[in-house]
């Protein structure tokens, strides 16, 4: 059942982990939730109804990309992002700050905002906190993110502190610009690099703004997984328990499982879609690189127990052929498999938390991954670095 207001309810907890529901006019988001990334108003290589059928309650759109092409005002004239991309369910938009950091060869950050050159045509644009919220409003986004400054790790403590304090001031301006929008939400973003006291200060100051949700930003940008998890553990006690918590740009299945254990409710990452387009698949038995010659005559499906057609029907040999031939169908099928696996993982986490058996479930999941790795060495690294993924998705 939907509502005309934005509400969040925690239904069950298991340790620090929680399962619950975000309710809003366009639908219910079951948490923990994974949001497929639809940067340019499309989840690459997928039909919208496929994405929904896999269990996604919400997708992510990107302010930076959509403001440059086709333009926020144009999307608004065409009925808003939901109608434009044929996705009538909740949409979260990020602020554009991360892409400005990672894509713009020339950019200038000051108190006002960010002046940058488009990676498409070199044209100059100014993104202020107020303009970011305005763009997200023109798109019709249900959950809007504050503009923040995201630094690449590792970085000097003084650089992390300066960006964190600027992000706090921008959060206040975004809150004013957002105003009162019944049924919608604006989330603040905790920054502070890998410095614990900065993260704590950021979380406390944002909590004082009484926003509808809070994100942890500036992670999965080059740091090891143990640093990311330590930052989550540092911040979690200072984030309001009655508000949703969103770990931005994360990550691998293992990143997600470990973050859920530490109390995170929402995730997004380009990894499942990007990996699928490049021949990498995620399954219950770990990852496979379908470019590998050993699959050339393997008649078994990716996962006969999966409910996804891409996973249980097509042979690895056929998928290997499609990948090696750069056929579009290969990209479509492997992306479908990967998003199905991610949504199945989230459903499993929600069920396990509700039943009070999260640790047992995590053990079973990790044993499945390790068995696959014992059978066939994994070909890709364990921790997502989103700075390498900003353009493609």
UniProtKB/TrEMBL annotation:
CC terms in the record's Gene Ontology section: cytosol
Coiled coil segments of this chain: none
One Pfam family recorded for the sequence: TGT
Active site: 94 (proton acceptor), 268 (nucleophile)
Keyword annotations from UniProtKB, A to Z: Glycosyltransferase, Queuosine biosynthesis, Transferase, tRNA processing
Region annotation (RNA binding) ranges: 249-255, 273-277
Skewed-composition ranges (Basic and acidic residues): 369-385
Lineage: superkingdom: Bacteria
Annotated transmembrane regions: none
Annotated metabolic or biological route of this protein: tRNA modification; tRNA-queuosine biosynthesis
Glycosyltransferase keyword on record: yes
Domain tRNA-guanine(15) transglycosylase-like residues, every copy: 16-368
Enzyme Commission (EC) number: 2.4.2.29
Disordered as annotated region, ranges: 369-393
Reactions catalysed: 7-aminomethyl-7-carbaguanine + guanosine(34) in tRNA = 7-aminomethyl-7-carbaguanosine(34) in tRNA + guanine
Residues engaged in binding substrate: 94-98, 148, 191, 218
GO biological process: one example: tRNA queuosine(34) biosynthetic process
GO molecular function (one): tRNA-guanosine(34) queuine transglycosylase activity
PANTHER family from the UniProt entry: QUEUINE TRNA-RIBOSYLTRANSFERASE (PTHR46499:SF1)
Subunit record text: Homodimer. Within each dimer, one monomer is responsible for RNA recognition and catalysis, while the other monomer binds to the replacement base PreQ1.
Its job: Catalyzes the base-exchange of a guanine (G) residue with the queuine precursor 7-aminomethyl-7-deazaguanine (PreQ1) at position 34 (anticodon wobble position) in tRNAs with GU(N) anticodons (tRNA-Asp, -Asn, -His and -Tyr). Catalysis occurs through a double-displacement mechanism. The nucleophile active site attacks the C1' of nucleotide 34 to detach the guanine base from the RNA, forming a covalent enzyme-RNA intermediate. The proton acceptor active site deprotonates the incoming PreQ1, allowing a nucleophilic attack on the C1' of the ribose to form the product.
Family (UniProt): Belongs to the queuine tRNA-ribosyltransferase family.
Name listed for the protein in its UniProt record: Queuine tRNA-ribosyltransferase
